[in-house]
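Team,

Forwarding the record for the chain on the shared tracking sheet. I've put the sequence and predicted structure together so nobody has to dig through attachments.
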Amino acid sequence: MAQLRIALAQVNSTVGDLDGNADKIVDWVRRAAGANAHLVAFPEMMLTGYPVEDLALRASFVEASQRALDRLARRLADEGLGDVPVVTGHLDRRPVGLVRSGQPAGAPLNAAAWLHGGKVLARSAKHHLPNYGVFDEYRIFVRGDRLPVVRVHGVDVATAVCEDLWQDGGPVSVTSASGAGLLLAINASPYERDKDDARLDLCARRAREAGCALAYVNMVGGQDELVFDGDSVIVGADGSLLARAPQFVEHLLIADLALPAATTSARPDRTPVDALDGTTITIDRHVLSTATLPAYPVEPQTIAEPLDDLAEVYAALVLGTRDYVRKNGFRSVVLGLSGGIDSALVATIASDAIGPENVHAILLPSRHSSEGSVVDAEDLVKRQGVNSRIVPIAGMVEAFEEQLDLHGLAAENLQARIRANIWMGLSNEHGHLVLTGGNKSELATGYSTLYGDSAGGFAPIKDVFKLTVWDLARWRNAQAGVDLPFLHPFADEPIPEAVIKKEPSAELRPGQRDVDSLPEYTALDPVLTDYVERDMGRDALVSAGHDPALVDRVIRMVDIAEYKRRQYPPGPKITPKNFGRDRRLPITNRWRER
């Protein structure tokens, strides 16, 4: 067996920041070289950030990515790092002569490149283009048809890109035929609950099929509504877990692997092979070094313990919020703090994400606000040390009422819209990003005011059902004094217990309660999960055990609220189907479940 020390750079890139991403690659290659790594791998589309969406169709951006890749290869050599093989994702395109009509403009490629000695040694591209959920890569990319196999210190290393692991056929299916000793997969696989176990099982299965070890490097960070959790892994040829990186943080996972030495001819060549999906994949062989390394002392392998369910959900919300704030050039946030559970959790996420000193909470009591709500909001401010300001709105409401004859729901919504005007005004004046406090249960049922509590720039709990909001609040309080990298070190519970125990209410009229307008959340959320996330129709919902009258009520509320959801700010995706890129329904739609 031959030895190889590989480094998986689980890092956070920014879409469009070609120079900044290149700087990060150089920095982490330097760290890997300092650890005597023989090969360094970065995530999918690392150089451009991911997902680039329709930027891939813009020729100027594709050309900028190509130039940045060449500059990066030269820079690594100029800075004394040219002897370390580097694999990174980038945006490329097919040569002009291979462009065909009916393909995406310019034939862009979701590409991977090997860099060595100041040059681009090998190029390939993702074969399987995902076209489901949040992905629409078939619309913007053309697929690749190569499996690069590069000999490094006597070991043949094959490379694949993300979805090529998830789908049968394509490059991964010919890895065994290539004789590779290691399959390296570069990924930008977004987080959703329970996906880490599915990924690990997938990697183990593909390693056994390929008959070789598999190294899986994943992106970390937030990009609009997507959160990438890292959780990079290395498994042996038998599928056993050899190394694992922590979730939701940048990390250099270094592992010493014992791998089979190459037995095929040590010369570059290209061999077409029929893949399991009926396509032809070219095994593209390159040689860097044929001699295996002398035996050297190995370092202990790192296997990070995965976070529990609520911890990883909370970490995703914090990372998604932090990166949206920082990558879009904001330094601070503002939000309305009502004394209720939703705004309390959003304020806490914001404090953990960017520090309480950068959070501005606005208390906006009206004549319908209970004394307890104001007291609870002030208690949270003291516990967390966020900036706060009280702006009573009763006089403003009265001024509107003098000019407008509003009643019932219109009068209630007026209060929410006045509050939104206040925090939007403070946002404009001071440059804060407005955080919206609505949860997934409210968003699903339309239980929010358009241009009122739905106004803002980012919605941290948009994909969190109400029952999970309470679970997360309790979980966060239980972590007071616990040292976790995504938590601010609050000594005491950051959320007052009274807020968690309080019956939810919008407090827009005397004695108002959520259950006046909505079913109990214990009944509502399970129906929403099945209808929204599992796309179950009425009959299937009833067959699953949900009350028929409740099903009819919930379906109607969800279906008529599509126009509200379409105007809602983005927020981090944590479930298999969020309101955003995952779920695309027409606003004008007469279809109703019966």
